[in-house]
Structures are given as structure tokens and as C-alpha cells.
């Protein structure tokens, strides 16, 4: 993230209004909610976890036990149970 000078980035009237509240301090202005990507969308992590969870559910439906799934996926038994319950 790059620092921007308010005099260059904002119209004078808006700068003057902001100066009523903050002067000389740094302020972070987040993106609008509708412009923000959800967690893992850009990196692909969300998709990978969804695929992994579908695979866990498939194995469970074919008779794999929770301890077997714990061993294969290196997750806690509680995590495996949550994944299975959520998708069943």
C-alpha cells in the first residue's frame, strides 16, 4: 500500500472537511464492501478447501472412519466432523 498526499488525491472541499476531524495523522480508507474480494478468492484457497472438504465427505460416505480421515488429511477429529456434518 502506497502513501498518498490528500492534497493530490482529494478535492479541496473534501480535504477541508476531513481536516476538521484529522490533521497530520495517517488514515486508512478501506475499499467499498462490494469491491472487496472474499477470503481466499484471489489466491484460490477457498476453492482448494471446498475441493478438499468435498473429498472428505465423499470418503466418509464410502465408509471411511473419522480416525482414517484424520490420518489422511492431518486435521483434528473435530474438524473432520464439522466438515462432514456441514455437507450432509
TrEMBL record:
<dbReference type="InterPro" id="IPR009057">
    <property type="entry name" value="Homeodomain-like_sf"/>
</dbReference>
<protein>
    <submittedName>
        <fullName>CD3324 family protein</fullName>
    </submittedName>
</protein>
<dbReference type="InterPro" id="IPR052411">
    <property type="entry name" value="c-mor_Regulatory_Protein"/>
</dbReference>
<dbReference type="InterPro" id="IPR049739">
    <property type="entry name" value="YraL-like"/>
</dbReference>
Amino acid at each position: 500500500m502506497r502513501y498518498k498526499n490528500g492534497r493530490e488525491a482529494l478535492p479541496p472541499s473534501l480535504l477541508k472537511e476531513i481536516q476538521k476531524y484529522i490533521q497530520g495523522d495517517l488514515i486508512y480508507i478501506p475499499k467499498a464492501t462490494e469491491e472487496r474480494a472474499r477470503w481466499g478468492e484471489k489466491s484460490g484457497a477457498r476453492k482448494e478447501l471446498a475441493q478438499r472438504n468435498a473429498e472428505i465427505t465423499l470418503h466418509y460416505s464410502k465408509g471411511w472412519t473419522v480416525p482414517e480421515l484424520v490420518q489422511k488429511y492431518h486435521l483434528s477429529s473435530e474438524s473432520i466432523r464439522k466438515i462432514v456434518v456441514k455437507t450432509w
